[in-house]
Each structure stands twice: as structure tokens, then as C-alpha cells.
Amino acid sequence: MPFFGKRDKDKESSKKSTNLLKKDDKSSPSLEDRYELKDLLGTGAFSQVRLAESKTEAGKLFAVKIIDKTALKGKEDSLENEIKVLRRLKHPNIVQLLETYEDKSKVYLVMELVTGGELFDRIVEKGSYTEKDAADLMRQVLEAVDYMHEQGVVHRDLKPENLLYYCPDEDSKIMISDFGLSKMEDSGIMATACGTPGYVAPEVLAQKPYGKAVDVWSIGVISYILLCGYPPFYDESDANLFAQILKGEFEFDSPYWDEISDSAKDFIRRLMCVDVNKRFTCREALQHPWISGNAASTKNIHSSVSEQLKKNFAKSRWRQAYNATAVIRQMRHLVLASTNSRSTLSSGEENNSSSDRELDDQPPRPKTVTAASANGRPAL
User: Fold this and answer.
1) Confidence class for position 81, pLDDT limits 50, 70, 90
2) Among candidates 32, 48, 2, 45, which has minimal Cα distance to 323?
3) Which residues contact 174 (CB under 8 A, 6 or more apart)?
4) Residue 124 DSSP label
5) Residue 199 and residue 162 in contact, taking contact as beta carbons nearer than 8 Å
6) 364 three-class SS
7) Domains of the chain by start residue, with CATH
8) Non-local CB neighbours of 354 within 8 Å, separated by 6+ positions
9) Which of 20-34, 252-266, 364-378 is predicted least confidently?
10) 243 in helix, strand or coil?
11) Is residue 157 annotated as a catalytic residue, yes or no?
12) What whole-number distance in Å separates Cα of residue 189 and Cα of residue 10?
């Protein structure tokens, strides 16, 4: 879970407005005019995400984030900042904000729909996985974050859960999502403690002013996990975890790292460097031989990495199954409507629809798996 500090003091907003977005004239179309809201895809503390179909482009699906103004009261600045950031960013590896709407009680963000699932889930499902695969993933992330930094935006909460595949295709690109904690450098000095334990940079924990380098540290942590399946820093106690991070204490444990190239280890050390002045920038990281050259090994490490990912990053997957089914079912209905609009469903199709409903109503129970050991080493 992200830990939230107080908003940056030097940029506290003195004005609170009911209208969070710049509104057009009253004749402007509403969300309901352009989109038909469908299945629930997910929920958050202040919002829910619904699948939506365009009313002007039949079959075109989107994700709509619906924010309750009442629940958001007192945190309007956070939403305004997220919208401002998303409007600035246009990159093929960043989930795009397409439109915004507002009524008396809610704010609606129409987002690009990504359907390929989370990073770790896809790796576990693969039959083969190599250093080269990990390097290709990190190259995409680095290119997107480098662009973000050029635009003066710091993400501040890069983690595997925020890296999503665009679609189920084998060669799908990776997408960066969730800009709720992002900050623009021109909005003032960043000193607020925010982010997710385990991925947060030392300078944040040290309560020092910080900048773009915090994202590079987080990319280093993700790269480490991609090559072994467990985190570089771990402890049941946040105090002990933070002490490890402040010192930059991590190891390349045997046997998990025995087959990993020296180039990969060097790449990680350059990113997870406590000294901000010596830490690589995204641009420098993109030039590292492990990313830009042929230094990444092509040996299959899937068995070891996937085993550790399942042990150390297990979560309840029934909700993911529910979310995926909502999208798949809607796509199926759209295909049926376009190819067989005048005929009734065959008995076989009726059975498929029934199976979908059963999965939605009775999701599989989450499995119990072993958690990581308290000292931060791999769970065995």
C-alpha cells in the first residue's frame, strides 16, 4: 500500500472549488451522451473504474475512472494534479487520459483501456523467460520515464502493479499507469514522503528534497525482482526495511543470481545507488550494454524466477479473473452483435454466456501461498 504524507507545504492550494475541471458551456455533451457505462472493473478508496463503450464508435471500449467528489473532499488538489499530469503526457507506453467530464457529484476520467494484465502475472504464465526479455521490458519503461522526466513529471510510485500489458498478445507493449502520486517539478520542491515501501528511494526516507532520481531507484528495484523473483529489500518491520534502504544494503544471493550476467548486476548497482549524484539517469541507463547492447543473457530463467514470484508476490487473483471476464464478455457480445445481429444465440453460445455469469458471480477462491522470509531472502 502506498504511504501518504502531507501535501507539499509550499504549494498548498488556498482555493477549494466544487468544479475541479474547466467546464465548457452548458451545451457541451455529457459522459452519458458519448459513452455507455458497463461492467465494474475495479474499485479504489475514492473511485471506481467501469468499462465503457463509445456511442459514436460502435465496439470501441474504454476505461472510465469515476471519482466521488464527496469522498474526495479535502483532497481536490491531488485529483487536479493527476489530471494536469496526464494531460501533459502523450507516450505509447503511458496509459493515456482521453477525456474528462464532471457533474455535481462526480468527476469522470475516460482512459485508454489496457487488457493484457499485470507484469508479474504474464511472466509466471510464460513458458520461457530470459534476461533479454527483462531487458526489453526495462527498456520500454526507461524510455517512457525518460520522456516523462523531459516533460518535468516525476511519477513517485513506480512499482510492478503499475506496469500493465496493453493487450493479451505475446508481443504486447508494457504500459505505465497510476499517476495519483505524480508531481511536476515546476510545482515546487518535492520533500513529501510518498511512494510504496520496498520501492521508495533512500533520499525520500531521509526526508531530503528529491527529484527525478527517485524513479530511477524504483526501476532498479523492479529490475532486480525481474531477474530473481524476490525483492532486494524486505522486512516485516517497516523500520527495519527503511534502514536497509537508507544504507542501500542488498545482495545477489546464490544460487538465484549465479546464472545472471555481470552486466545485469552492474546495471542494477548503477540504478540502486544511494548517492543521487552517482545514480544513473534514465538516459544513461538506456545506454547501458545490458539495455542497448547484447550483454543480456538468453538463457531460460523462467523456472527459478516464476517460482519465486509466486511465493513472494502472491495475491488474490479472483478479482483479476472477474475484471478480465468483464472485458472478454463485452467483446464477445460486440462480435456476436455485429456478425449475428438478427439471430438468437445457439445453444452452445448460451452455455458460454452462462459460464461467464458463473465466473462473475462465483470467483475462484484465492490460494494460500508462502510469504517471503522475514530477513528479506528468497522464500523457500
Assistant:
1) confident
2) 48
3) 93, 119, 137, 140, 141, 163, 164, 165, 166
4) H
5) no
6) coil
7) 30-111 (3.30.200.20), 119-299 (1.10.510.10)
8) none
9) 364-378
10) helix
11) yes
12) 8
Binding site annotation covers 278? no
Cell 539495455 belongs to residue: 291
pTM of the model: 0.78
Q: How far is CA 45 from CA 1, 18, 67, 143, 322, in A?
A: 12, 19, 9, 31, 19
Which amino acid would we find at residue 136?
A: D
Q: What are phi and psi of 294, to 5 degrees?
A: -115, 25
> 95: which residues sit within 8 A by CB, 6+ positions away?
111, 112, 114, 164, 175, 176, 177
* Alpha carbons 191 and 214: distance in angstroms, whole number: 11
Give me the phi and psi of 118, to 5 degrees please.
-80, 160
CA distance 122 to 257: 21
Contact in structure between 124 and 292 (CB atoms under 8 Å) = no
d(CA 34, CA 36): 7
Determine the residue type at 36. E
Helix or strand holding residue 64 (H, E): strand 61-68
CB 34 within 8 A of CB 55: yes
Amino acid identity at 29: P
3-state secondary structure of 63: strand
Q: C-alpha cell of 378?
A: 528468497
Per-residue CA distances from 227 to 206, 218, 221, 280 (Å) = 28, 15, 10, 19
* Average pLDDT rounded to a whole number, residues 315-337: 52
What is the number of residues in the chain? 380
CA-based nearest residue to 163, from 222, 97, 118:
118
Q: 133, 146, 157, 178: which one is catalytic?
A: 157
Amino acid at 112: E
Among 7-11, 54-58, 240-244, name the one with the lowest average pLDDT: 7-11
**Amino acid at residue number 178:** D
Cell representation of residue 303: 523456472
